[in-house]
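Good morning C.,

I know you're traveling, so I'll keep this short. The sequence:
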Amino acid sequence: PAILIPWAGAAGDHQTDNAQAIAKEGGCVLVPEHKLKEMDLGKLILKLWMDEERLRRMAQAVQRVARPQAARAVAQELLALAKGSR
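The tokens, ready to paste straight into the viewer:
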């Protein structure tokens, strides 16, 4: 479970796109950077902390969208390209 605050200045706003994909599945709470000043982040954290069922559901949701081998696959593909075997 996570609270994601995407940086609005990221190229193509890709951080928001990634956070939205996880939030859509229920794996995180997305807080847009521009709303950070007007909200009480401490209260949000405490609210999540106190809701064990929601945390459990968030953990299950994030497992469904996780791609733990993604970095390895990209690295292997780049190495293959660098060696000229692709």
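Safe travels,
E.
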